[in-house]
Specification:
The chain is α+β, with helices and mostly antiparallel strands. Helix content is 60%, strand content 7%. It has eleven helices and four strands, in the order E-E-E-E-H-H-H-H-H-H-H-H-H-H-H. The protein is globular and about 60 Å long. The model has no long low-confidence stretch (mean pLDDT 94).
């Protein structure tokens, strides 16, 4: 556990520990997570963490750097926390936005149908489930068996992959879109377009507010970093 509040190390390096996995060393001290676990990372992730810990700045800022924060979170997940994530993701599936297609205006209805229908078919085929689709804002109850099937899939994932899917789902607002991206069934560009189809339509009609544009740019940058992680784990 690192206690000092200030950067005290001179060198940062990765060291292979076998099976193409790496530890990170600050001088001669192995970098550990907040809960005292050694980070065991792929080479690409290790390179990003080395880069972040080589930067100048306070320890708190470095620990909050994107890749470091992700690796710490994934490394420190407990069994109880995994169960909580399973529950969160199943809840997303129970009210996934792709299952709700607006009745009107017609242009939005057609846009959503064009974007959502292929993802609905993909999810149904991938999980061998049936998704109930509706219009408007009323809650649509999904078949009870869906939750068990999706949970079993998630239980097979290690902590890094589970964390990546959880963060992607929060970013996109849709578990099925995130899983389609994770399984290489859609591109990152299409996944982002699907997640923002309603906002993009509203902007077409009413224009864009500068503050909203800035927030959307920040959210998109975060999403792009998450897609990079998919290539590293």
């Amino acid at each position: 556990m690192i206690i000092s509040k200030d950067k005290y190390w001179k060198t940062v390096r990765k060291k292979e520990q076998g099976k193409n996995l790496f530890f990170i060393y600050l001088d001669e001290v192995c970098l550990k997570s907040d809960k005292g676990h050694k980070l065991v990372l792929s080479e690409q992730l290790a390179n990003e963490v080395v880069r972040e810990w080589s930067a100048d700045g306070k320890l708190s800022a470095i620990k909050n750097s994107f890749f470091t924060k992700f690796c710490f979170s994934a490394t420190d997940i407990t069994k109880k926390e995994r169960e909580t994530i399973f529950g969160n993701l199943v809840e997303y599936a129970n009210c996934d936005p792709i299952c709700y297609i607006a009745c009107e205006p017609t242009k939005l209805h057609l846009k959503q149908k064009n974007f959502y229908s292929p993802l609905i078919h993909w999810a149904e085929n991938f999980f061998s489930i049936k998704l109930n689709i509706g219009t408007g804002l009323l809650y649509i109850e999904q078949p009870p068996l869906n939750a068990n099937i999706i949970k079993k899939y998630l239980e097979e994932l290690d902590n890094f992959h589970l964390t990546a899917i959880h963060e992607l789902t929060k970013s996109l607002g849709s578990l099925f879109t995130s899983l389609a991206l994770y399984e290489n069934a859609v591109s990152s560009e299409l996944a982002w377009e699907v997640a923002n189809v309603e906002d993009n339509f509203r902007i077409e009609v009413w224009g864009e507010v500068e503050e909203e544009k800035q927030k959307k740019n920040i959210d998109f940058d975060h999403f792009k970093d998450l897609t990079k992680i998919l290539q590293m784990i």
